[in-house]
User: What shape does this take?
Amino acid sequence: MLALHFGLSESSVTKYFKKTLPKVAICLNQLIRWPSADEVRENLPIAFRKRYSKAISIIDCFEIQIEKPSNALHQALTWSQYKSCNTIKYLISITPDGLINFISEGYGGRTPDSTIFEDSGFLDKLPLGGIVLADRGFKNIAHLLEQRGCTLLRPASVGSSSKPTAEEVLQTKRIAAIRVHVERCIGNNQV
Assistant: This one.
């Protein structure tokens, strides 16, 4: 599309794009910063103040569709069962007021959310004592957060053998209502 729009060959546009994109990424990376816990609390939306006043981060993973790699191993590593195509997956964190404060390096679409969480360097950024909100895909990460003095809040896992209690249903609704902020951020910014 860029080649047609600017009257250039596709190979020229590809060459310019490959040269320019890393430089743009370096510049834009400087705009992603982790605010202090005090800054997060000062800008805490009303919806968080009563029950989640120590919330420091809302995390999720998002996937971007890519061309099918020619290498069979790369095809397998980037295949996303969820999207039914080859993808690159990223961990994103936002503050409760919607500021993007962390984006991981890309991982193959097959990589579990919990593996990206553990490997991405996100834990090194967390201040002590904060609450991290996540969805059900982040299984088995509570112990990692506890080691950093933080707490994980995520909806209760749905099991086929047991019916959730009324309190679990209410807690899940509350978490979903405030986690929607990260979903909107991903959707609005098309990151």
Summary: The CA atoms of residues 60 and 183 lie 8 Å apart.
